[in-house]
Amino acid sequence: MLGLDPTHLVNLAVALIAAATLHEFAHAYVADRLGDTTARALGRLTLNPLAHLDIVGTLMILVAGFGWAKPVPINPANFSNWRRDTILVAVAGPLANVTLLFLFGLPLKIGVVDIDVPLGQLLLTCVYINAMLAVFNLIPVPPLDGSKVLVGLLPPRLAIGYARLEPFGVIILLALIFLRLLSVIIVPPMQWLITEATGSPFFGLF
User: How much is the pTM?
Assistant: First the structure.
């Protein structure tokens, strides 16, 4: 992905902390507002990165260019409308990342920061990481956010059946990686988001 250059690693660390923290905080905040205080009780309704970063997910970003944070636990039984509210909580994280990537990309898009300067490289890294988290988490494979959206949309019987795939979610993701299908799924929407956010197709720089 970004190589082992110390500057790249620092940029990656900053981008990852900001993106993962806001992603999981958004889940916790929306769930809390909708009546489920599970995240609050477990100390996840916070902007403290230590509460949200996942060691394996972080290492995957360094090694493979994609990864995840520690999922925020929710209890749909606490929602007034479990289908609607589960979907709202699930999309809150990716939407937070999309918002961040457009904010970080704006200085590059309007030309107030040059891509060749250190700040430009940091901003571009932040755009990349947020695009990755937004798109990757919307894949409908348990336990990613996309699977929770799908469960909320499916008829009850199909939703229950699909939810049973969760123990096999990691295996499915590893199979997608092994078969080199994951990049086929996530790269095109990431490229589009990065281009829209920055005004240029910077994806190839990573």
Answer: 0.87
